[in-house]
Design goal:
alpha/beta; two-stranded antiparallel ribbon; 7 helices; 10 strands; 29% helix; globular
Length: 235
């Protein structure tokens, strides 16, 4: 039985699922989605899921009023999602760090309205901004884990669920060491330099299936640019 190791960029997966309204991002559904990747004679080695914990402190808003991010519904939802992943078999949660310098940025549509004169600066409210929150150490952890699995030969194939060109060095290393690398961009356009260093692109999400991709969002689903010669799911 061949072993398949999955490396999931959690923030990427969450936003792609939210965009296409595919399924709720929790432990059991993530497991079921990864199972759709397996060919006959393959089994899951481990699903490594990478994310950061939610921001849980009070931050002053642009108007100066305090906002407790730990009490927001999005923070509660994220904590529930991470706990669900911890409790699901075959999933291993890898947490990076969250970085926030209390900087607020105008939402793109609001900035556009200001520039074209349809909004006045004096009309701005707290809801017109978003807090600049960044993930730290996630990409590094993914790269290190891919290298470890590859060098120790703990799996026969890697499935990378991500869409960032930052993973190109890790994919290239794995292939140089003889590992087969499949990329699942979940309907997102694949950067050219990442495309060069993978073997296959396979996305179990079917844009023609309403339970996978909302028909209204189908136009945003980018078909794979690399042929899947020799890749058949026969389970």
């Amino acid at each position: 039985m061949s072993k398949v190791a999955f490396f999931v960029d959690g923030n990427f997966m969450f936003h792609q699922l939210k965009q296409f309204k595919s399924f709720f991002c929790d432990g059991p559904n993530i497991l079921n989605y990864c199972l759709r990747h397996l060919n006959k004679g393959e089994a899951i080695y481990r699903i490594f899921f990478y994310d950061t914990p939610p921001l849980e402190r009070i931050v002053p808003t642009p108007s100066g009023s305090p906002m407790n991010y730990g009490a927001t519904q999005s923070s509660k939802n994220m904590k529930a999602r991470l706990e669900s992943i911890r409790e699901t078999p075959h999933l291993a949660l890898r947490l990076g760090k969250i970085s926030c310098q209390d900087e607020w940025i105008l939402k793109p549509n609001v900035l556009k309205e200001l520039l074209n004169g349809t909004r006045a600066v004096t009309s701005l409210i707290d809801g017109d901004y978003y807090l600049d929150i960044k993930q730290k150490a996630v990409d590094m952890k993914i790269g290190l884990d891919i290298a470890t699995i590859t060098y120790k030969r703990l799996a026969d194939r890697i499935v990378l669920i991500a869409g960032d060109a930052d993973f190109t060095p890790a994919a290239k290393l794995a292939r140089m060491e003889g590992m087969e690398v499949t990329l699942d961009p979940m309907g997102k356009k694949v950067p050219a330099d990442l495309l060069e260093h993978i073997d296959y692109i396979h996305t179990p999400l079917d844009p023609n299936n309403a339970s996978d991709v909302d028909p209204k969002k189908k136009i945003f689903f980018v078909p794979p640019r690399k042929a899947l010669y020799g890749y058949f799911n026969t389970s």
